């Protein structure tokens, strides 16, 4: 069963505009959420995270929003840059933190 | 500080052979995780190890797969008698001893192709 879902396989955005990547989860025991970025032939790189006690976390151009009641989180990238083109994975973990549960990923293409 | 290292980067095996994938965690990290990514899918957790101990192997197939993280040397993921369905990218991640958050640092992966 897919506990973390990224329903948009791909997203195309113009350079300078906002990119919004979405993620839904089903397991109410998740209390920590992360976003990873992955280029082809490389491993995922940690981007930003959020604890379930918060509803927003910001780091430079990247902001993650968490809506616990809707079991939904989103990653906002603004302004988007061509170098942001990659696959973005949403991941979640429970408090014991031993493993990450990943979504299937969203391919982001930023056009210049 | 070198990142997580995995070797080989690419591995080709024929059906029935053994595959050994190696992972050296970041310096100071004693927690190692293995994930598998099948084509068009996200990463799936396989196993979590600390030095000399398997902590959680709930994602490991029951047969043919094993993992170890000895006191000295890299972590090894071993796949015996490989089949075509084992073809995937295998990623190793590590995290430090004291983790207040769950950030895991990933290696570049080993791409296994079974002919």
Topology:
The complex is a heterodimer of chains A (112) and B (115).
Chain A: E1 4-5, E2 10-14, E3 19-25, E4 32-38, E5 45-51, E6 56-59, E7 62-67, E8 72-77, E9 86-93, E10 101-102, E11 106-111
Chain B: E1 5-7, E2 10-13, E3 19-24, E4 29-37, E5 43-50, E6 53-56, E7 65-68, E8 75-79, E9 88-96, E10 105-106, E11 110-114
Parallel strand pairs in B: 2-11
Antiparallel strand pairs in B: 1-3, 3-8, 4-5, 4-9, 5-6, 7-8, 9-10, 9-11
Radius of gyration of chain A: 13 Å
Runs of chain B in which pLDDT lies below 50 for 5 or more consecutive residues are none
Q: In total, how many beta strands of chain A?
A: 11
Total helical segments of chain A:
0
How far the N terminus sits from the C terminus of chain A, by CA atoms, comes to: 38 Å
Summarize the amount of helix of chain A as a percent range. under 10%
Largest protein-protein interface:
A-B, 24 and 27 residues
- Estimated helix fraction of chain B: under 10%
Mean pLDDT across all residues of chain A, rounded?
95
Inertia-based shape of chain A: globular
* Content of β-strand of chain A: over 45%
From N to C, what is the helix and strand string of chain B? EEEEEEEEEEE
